[in-house]
Amino acid sequence: ELKVEQNPLFLSMQEGKNYTIYCNYSTTSDRLYWYRQDPGKSLESLFVLLSNGAVKQEGRLMASLDTKARLSTLHITAAVHDLSATYFCAVDIWDTDKLIFGTGTRLQVFP
Amino acid sequence: DTEVTQTPKHLVMGMTNKKSLKCEQHMGHRAMYWYKQKAKKPPELMFVYSYEKLSINESVPSRFSPECPNSSLLNLHLHALQPEDSALYLCASSPLPGTAKGGIYGYTFGSGTRLTVV
Fold first, then answer.
1. Mean predicted confidence (pLDDT) in A65-69
2. Residues A62 and A83: beta-carbon distance below 8 Å
3. Are strands B10-13 and B113-117 parallel, antiparallel or unpaired?
4. Is the pLDDT confidence value at B104 over 70?
5. Residue B44: its chain A contacts at CB < 8 A?
6. In B43-100, alpha helices (H)
7. Do B99 and A45 count as a contact with CB atoms less than 8 A apart?
């Protein structure tokens, strides 16, 4: 059965701290995406990772992909309150037209 | 135009009503998707259209009926829904379907339709 699992599911962290969100998937894929969702809103694209070893950075967020380990990470550096949201990874399933979402990580940053 | 436009933004319907959700994109994308998202859950794939043909139906109940009249437009027809069908319905598009080789990848999501079934 296909699984795209994130951990942690919920993360409460203090401003200024660093943390990493993990995304594990159980099928062959070399395309992985990270999205942000604010409450009641749609999905905002953060990163597109298209090959093994890909690393992308934007502001305080950095994403990486290891296709051999079937693992992607989203690293948060010096968190600020504005980063509070739910973060989803999503995986293109090899040789299908499917994009499947991970379980989601709800991030709350407090002063 | 780099957007996916969904209408309406909010919809309240009774269990005996028939309504439709609409999704439009003018980016020349050849794959379009419907997702359903319940509160505090990830989006769940419902349907995929590839080159205007239905390529994936994730065992969705027949009270949901998708339609792709042309390459820019995707509809979701709703009939005899249940209260548990209340959710955020998201439309997305991508330049090519996932099975296309050597394509440009990435997905653009619309702002969604918040559906309430009473």
1. 93
2. no
3. parallel
4. no
5. 101
6. none
7. no
Q: Which residues in B lie closer than 8 A to residue A43 (C-beta atoms)?
A: 43, 90, 109
CB atoms within 10 A of CB B114: 16
The shortest C-alpha distance from B4 to chain A (Å) reads: 11
pLDDT tier for residue B39 given thresholds of 50, 70 and 90: very high
* Region B33-61 average pLDDT: 96
B102 pLDDT more than 90: no
Chain B's closest residue to A37, CA to CA, is: B42
Of A92, A102, A103, which is closest to B105 when you measure between CB atoms? A92
d(CA A22, CA A24): 7
Query: What are the φ and ψ backbone dihedral angles of B63, each rounded to 5 degrees?
Result: -70, -10
Q: Does residue B37 have a pLDDT over 90?
A: yes
Instruction: Report CB contact under 8 Å: B98, A103.
Output: no
B101, pLDDT greater than 70: no
Residues in chain A with CB shorter than 8 Å from the CB of B45 are 98-100
Residue B12's alpha-carbon distances to B35, B36, B111, in angstroms, are: 18, 16, 17
Distance CA A74, CA A85 (A): 13
